[in-house]
Amino acid sequence: MSLLIKNGFVYDPLNGIDGEIMDICVKDGRIVEKVDEHEAKTIDASGMIVMPGGIDIHTHIAGSEVNTGRLLRPEDHVHDVEPKTLLTRSGVGYSVPSTFTTGYRYVRMGYTFLCNPSMPPLEARHTHEELDDTPIVDKMTFPLLGDWWFVLEYLRDGLIKECAEHVAWMIMATKGYAIKIVNPGGLEAWGFGRNVNDIDDPIPYFNVTPREIVRGLCVVNKILSLPHTIHVHTNRLGQPGNYITAIKTMDCVKDLALSDKPVIHITHCQFSAFKGDSWADMRSGAEEITKYVNAHNHVTLDMGQIIFTDTTTMTADGPWQYTLYELSGNKWVNHDVEVETSSGIVPFKYRRKNYVHATMWSIGLELALLVKDPWKIYLTTDHPNGGPFTEYPRIICWLMSEKARGRALRKINNRAKARSLLPSIDREFTFYEVAIVTRAGQAKALGLKNKGHLGVGADADIAIYNVDPRKIDPSSDYKAVRRAFTNAAYTIKYGEIVAKDGEIVKAFNGKTYWINFVGSAFANDIFPGAAANLKKRFREYWTVEFDNYFIPKSYLKESMPITVEVKGV
Q1: Closest by Cα among 504, 498, 335, 354 to 414
Q2: Which residue from 92, 178, 186, 271 could staple onto 228, CB 3.0 to 4.6 Å apart?
Q3: What does the domain layout of the chain look like in residue ranges?
Q4: CATH architecture of the domain with range 2-52+458-504
Q5: Taking a C-beta distance cutoff of 8 angstroms, is the pair 286, 245 a contact?
Q6: Span 54-446: which CATH code?
Q7: Tens digit of pLDDT for each residue in 494-540?
Q8: Alpha-carbon distances, residue 104 vs 108, 136, 313, 420, 509 (angstroms)
Q9: Cα–Cα distance between 361 and 351 in angstroms, integer?
Q10: How many Å is the Cα radius of gyration of the chain?
């Protein structure tokens, strides 16, 4: 099908287009230079904003932890019931929606690409089954490798080459895309009933430190030429004083950067930006974090903005989830995934009048507004940990409008309000900057060459919003902006109109992106050395057979392998 989008205000930061009135031409699912106007379907986007489809770099949407969250919270199912239509499946869930509901709700907001950031390799099949079940959007997933026993052994023994071979095999075996590291060393320490206190605190038995894990896997990432940097959930997340640990983590790989290319992504940074020695004097460390980020180009962040609501926290950071269980007294699930990782799930409610919660709300916005370059920080809630992804339009309003922030600020805890940096910040995002933090910047960070922009040859993933930048001032008309970003006028996926004015009008399977290594370092699609060693280890440690671990390409409904050439390790 050919499609012609006429006269829209186009925001395409990867191509430097800032609100120009342009036509966008689509044919066979791609952006093209021109189409036959007589044959093409035409959308008149006059008075509307046109952007690439939204991208979420960090959202927990699939896999065993998400499904366990659904089972743990039947009370969450009564919210936002998704009715069945002739085109769509029914579904439920507010903070942990079912798979079909997740796809529909993202598409309504103009989002077309999602990154599931936390996958125990042993549970990869379950994760991919749920990703396959999430309609319309493209997706990818990041295997958890930071506390993997064999990675720890290789790093302990200084065997970087062998570690790289092993990581490459694991990424291909699980059909993953990037190296995910959660509380490096802390998850293994949790098996001994403890945590790590700093990035130089050795973990039991292996005697490697979080610094060595982060640096070692950063080197592995560079050896393997992966499109995305290491994706790091820092040590001491959620603890007062952890901003120092976050800065140390960023700084420990500074010397591994080449030119201005990032080598580390700190995810949901709000949870790692606390000052203070206790909850009583906990306060924002956003100013110190952003000073570091503004002065260095080897790091990117995402916000992890919290929303004042009832939600479900879930993470591979087992020790932190136990702490959250003790703080909240809520029900709790904790799980060790054999030799691979840990996890925890705790329902949680963020309250405006709670000093700590209100301070956390302020920190997320402070990070986004104080980082000078929007290409370095991206909009997330760490769904569902900070709140549901459906609240992104509200966060966009807070970023674009000092008035909207001020209105929210007046309702929070008085002590948190007095300590907040927000009253001293008058910056307001433009639509161009919103396009960076919600799509272009995330595509660049992920190394997605055909996503996040509207240049010729790009995938025709497009969002059109019914808001006229000539007629409204987002600073004062932020409610109109929020309405527009809640229900896109049109969401277009691979050149097909899939949503119109918030209604799903076409549904199909999106693609799952994964890394396929090729080159002289490989034989028969796997590293022979790593595979031979693993077969022996599976007999010794795992409850499944080696042959049942590897996920074939045919297992995925719609597969999009990204070829990465490795000439030697």
Answers
A1: 354
A2: 178
A3: 2-52+458-504, 54-446, 512-565
A4: Roll (2.30)
A5: no
A6: 3.20.20.140
A7: 999 999 999 999 999 999 999 998 875 554 445 566 667 788 888 88
A8: 6, 8, 22, 36, 12
A9: 10
A10: 23
